[in-house]
Write a structure and sequence with these properties.
Elements lengths: L4 E3 L6 E3 L34 H11 L39 H10 L4 H15 L5 H5 L3 H40 L7 H7 L14 E3 L3 E4 L5 E7 L4 E7 L5 E7 L5 E4 L2 E6 L2 E5 L7 E4 L5 E5 L2 E6 L2 E6 L2 E6 L6 E6 L4 E5 L4 E6 L4 E6 L8 E8 L3 E8 L2 E8 L5 E6 L1 E6 L5 E10 L4 E5 L2 E6 L4 E6 L4 E5 L2 E4 L6 E6 L2 E6 L2 E5 L5
Antiparallel strand pairs: 1-2, 3-33, 4-5, 5-6, 6-7, 8-9, 9-10, 10-11, 12-13, 13-14, 14-15, 16-17, 17-18, 18-19, 20-21, 21-22, 22-23, 24-25, 25-26, 27-28, 28-29, 29-30, 31-32, 32-33
């Protein structure tokens, strides 16, 4: 027998004609009219619908399932249908909006018909009271839940990124600080410390120049008051005498391009072609002295001589003195102003003291410092001593000779050409220092002289090659850099570089 279908007025679904709607559980209105006498039999029975469709319907009604369950499969009919008495009381309807599992169970128990369905509803109600083990219901969030979850994880990510950046910055700062602290400045050595405290070209002198000139060569008088500079101009070459203190020009003269300035005590000299220009002490204009071809301009013991054959012109601080040599071919070694005599060197190995007129005052033969020694240089002479270099089988020797008997009073091995101070009071060589007035010779093995800066100061290098200064027997390191010291005086330090010369004042103490 085919099942009779009706339309539920509540959910508008077409369901079997039964006391309750199989989809929503509502009471089916007019369901009693469906059962006619012809269809009533004493053996009517109907298999209870499966549990799952009823449970799905209830879950949907309780708002625990969003999807509409599929149609419940209709149960198979039995051969005979049981008659439902009309006098059965109608069941209590279940409220769709507010029903709970407990209400469903009570409603089923009070109904007069549909015992199997009531039992099924009661069983489903008891199942609904148990914990629901449905992954989809437990894990699937709603739309609002998704939004909250997204916002929560967004904030977590933002805070995490900020913390990572903050931590990275701290690490970088720490690494940078550690790097800087590990790269400590090296401690300067004694040489470096001395150089760092130096302001100017030499220790004790300022870096600011007082004055400068584009000079190629320069010399300073023994008293440090004047300087003679030679420099190129647009029209040729000029020799100029300037004040050491302020650099102001005192006198200028045109000279030959190869003119070389010289100093003899406080007299300034320069040879230019066939003449010698001489500025005596305090002179504002030069004196021109003819210099014949073959004549020689030289300085001995602080005195200038222009030698021409058997005659010579002496440039003294007081002026010019003309003298005659005792014999031709002699070379002057010194002028003795107190006695108005000149000490001459003879090629025969004699020291001859003569008057300005050429008469011999004293003649003495030299004693060699060693066997097989020959004279290699005539340096200077004073009123008591003469200073020569000799070549021996062992090398060069600087010797001090007595003018009285020609004996050697002191000697020392040296290397290089000896230097004479501006006024002739000192001799210096690598290996020996000599005071000409007393004839005292001191062996000096730690200092190599390069130039006299004054009668008491030398510039050179140590034995190890470091730039150094010598003063009063003491050697001190000095770094001159590009500046080459020329002279020292109370006015300052005169130094030269490739572009010219400049005066640097002493630093204030």
């Amino acid at each position: 027998m085919s099942a009779t279908l009706v339309v539920c007025e509540t959910c508008k679904s077409e369901v079997r004609a039964e006391p309750y709607c199989a989809r929503c559980g509502a009471v089916l209105l007019g369901a009693a009219a469906v059962f006619t006498e012809a269809a009533t039999v004493s053996t009517y029975s109907e298999a209870a619908p499966e549990k799952e469709p009823v449970q799905d319907e209830l879950l949907a009604r309780l708002g625990l399932m969003e999807t509409t369950p599929t149609d419940v499969e209709e149960p198979a009919e039995t051969a005979a249908e049981q008659h439902v008495p009309e006098s059965d009381s109608a069941p209590v309807p279940v409220e769709e909006e507010s029903a709970t599992p407990e209400d469903v169970a009570v409603a089923g128990s009070t109904s007069g018909g549909g015992d199997e369905l009531d039992a099924a509803l009661a069983r489903n109600a008891s199942d609904l009271t148990a914990p629901i083990d449905t992954p989809a219901l437990a894990e699937t969030p709603t739309r609002r839940g998704w939004l909250a979850l997204i916002l929560r994880w967004w904030w977590v990510g933002a805070i995490g990124a900020f913390l990572v950046l903050l931590l990275g910055g701290i690490v970088l700062v720490s690494i940078s600080s550690a790097s800087h602290s590990s790269q400590k400045a090296p401690r300067p050595s004694s040489t470096t410390a001395a150089a760092s405290s130096q302001k100017g070209p030499l220790p004790g002198y300022a870096s600011k120049q007082v004055w400068g000139a584009a000079a190629k060569r320069a010399v300073v008088t023994a008293d440090g008051g004047r300087v003679l500079v030679v420099y190129p101009t647009a029209s040729g070459t000029t020799a100029a005498v300037r004040g050491m203190k302020d650099g102001k020009s005192i006198s200028t003269s045109d000279v030959a391009a190869d003119a070389a300035p010289m100093v003899a005590g406080n007299t300034l000299l320069v040879r230019s072609g066939d003449k010698v220009l001489a500025w005596a002490s305090g002179a504002t204009e030069p004196t021109a002295v003819p210099a014949p071809e073959g004549s020689t301009l030289l300085v001995r013991a602080g005195t200038g001589f222009l030698v021409d054959g058997g005659a010579a012109t002496v440039f003294t601080d007081g002026g010019l003195v003309s003298v005659t040599a005792p014999r031709a071919g002699m070379v002057p070694l010194g002028y003795l102003s107190e006695t108005q005599t000149i000490v001459w060197a003879s090629a025969t190995g004699h020291l001859v003291t003569g008057a300005v007129t050429g008469s011999v005052v004293h003649d003495v033969a030299l004693v060699a410092p060693a066997a097989d020694a020959t004279v290699s240089g005539w340096l200077a002479a004073t009123d008591k001593f003469a200073f020569l270099t000799w070549t021996t089988p062992a090398g060069t020797v600087l010797a001090v000779h007595s003018l009285e008997n020609g004996s050697v009073t002191a000697q020392a091995p040296i290397s290089g050409a000896p230097l004479v101070s501006p006024s002739g009071t000192m001799l210096a060589a690598a290996g020996a220092l000599v005071t000409t007035g007393s004839g005292e010779l001191v062996a000096e093995t730690e200092f190599v002289p390069a130039a006299f800066l004054s009668d008491k100061d030398l510039y050179g290098t140590t034995k190890a090659g470091r730039p150094a200064l010598w003063h009063a027997g003491k050697v001190s390191d000095a770094t001159a850099g590009v500046w080459q010291p020329v002279a020292l005086s109370s006015k300052g330090l005169l130094a030269a570089d490739p572009s010219g010369i400049a005066l640097f004042p002493p630093t204030k103490k």
